[in-house]
Amino acid sequence: MTIFLNGTLALIFIGWQSGLIAAENAKVPLTEATPESQNLDSTHFKRVVAKIDEGEYGDMNALLVLRNNYLVLEHYTSPLYHGRDYRHPAKSITKSVTSALVGIARGQGKMPDLDSNLLGLFPQYPDIANMDSRKQQITLDHVLSMTAGFEWDEFVVGDTSEFKMMRSKDWLKFTLDQPMSHTPGEKWIYNGGCSILLSDILKNATGSEVDDYARKYLLDPIGIENWNWSLIIGNVTNTVSGLKMSRRDMARFGVLFLNDGRWQGKQIVPEEWVRKSTSVQVLGKGDYFPYAYGYQWWRLQNQEPTVGMLAVNDAYFALGLGGQFIFVVPHLNMVVVSTAANFGSDEALFFKLLREHIFPAVLN
């Protein structure tokens, strides 16, 4: 299914007045527009839709492009299975949503300070293994930026640290028990264990289960209703990868951040947190080059080829295993959402698509 509002090509036509349409959910002002009305060249969108369907970008099953808060392209390769209402696994996009909840709780004065000692936030575990002076230095800031220093490897072929955590009886304890490989703050090591720790920290800070807190203060306020958030052993909300939602709802989340945390004039996520959490907190080195990381959000370093097509390197993105993306480019006032099953080439094909068709479509 393609919703492609250019007046000439559409697999599904939608009538419009003055080039705009109110979205199906009146509660949420997600509106549609022609690419040209938002200074975009629709010929690039025709080509990218054809190439997605031909498999040039692997097993990509959906692409949405928004500019100036208007939806200008919405394409699904399989309307019955991967259509508009399908709850797609967000994978590690979950981490960025969790970061937004941390910001909301901070704005309500409920979260511990960023320099709070991590171990002090887990008094239920007095017998943490592999204790040393470095582990005693870990702060909430280190957890958010994945610079805690735990010995961890999610990219090794075979039995990764995350797989071992998932087989354990207690994901929180498993993470806290890991030996230290670096001094906190010294190195960014991608670590889903840090993200699950945020689940318990949020629950204790807010007095609510994370999914209930998310519904009340984030998802409902921006009209996200078609979602599911899984639990792990102990009824802990899976803040690593447990969220499922429609691609339109992913787009809503991206638009929320594009607008500095505001929705319909209401501040949902504190603006200060939007800027801080999506800013570079640590640069990737070695296998992590040319990426950078904020607080559960990804950034690109200047050397990454995609950045060369941007006037300003201000793009940030939520990224999930297999090629799930919410990609935000503030200076272009643009959000790009894509979902896929491109395991093993998560980023490369999506960035190729951006370089070949999305960014060249910008007319101004």
Q: Could you list some keywords that capture this structure?
A:
three-stranded antiparallel beta sheet; alpha+beta; 364 residues; globular; 2 domains; 29% helix; Methane Monooxygenase Hydroxylase, Chain G, domain 1
- Helix and strand run: EEEHEEHEHHHHHHEEEEHEEHEEEEEEH
Q: Which word captures the global form?
A: globular
Taking pLDDT < 50 over at least 5 consecutive residues as the criterion, the unreliable ranges are: 4-28
- Count of DSSP strands: 18
Number of helices: 11
| Major sheet characteristics | 11 strands, mixed
Helix/strand structural class: alpha+beta
In percent, how helical is the residue content? 25-40%
Euclidean distance between termini CA atoms: 29 Å
Domains, number: 2
Strand composition percent? 15-25%
The overall pLDDT, averaged over residues, is 91
* CA gyration radius, whole angstroms: 20 Å
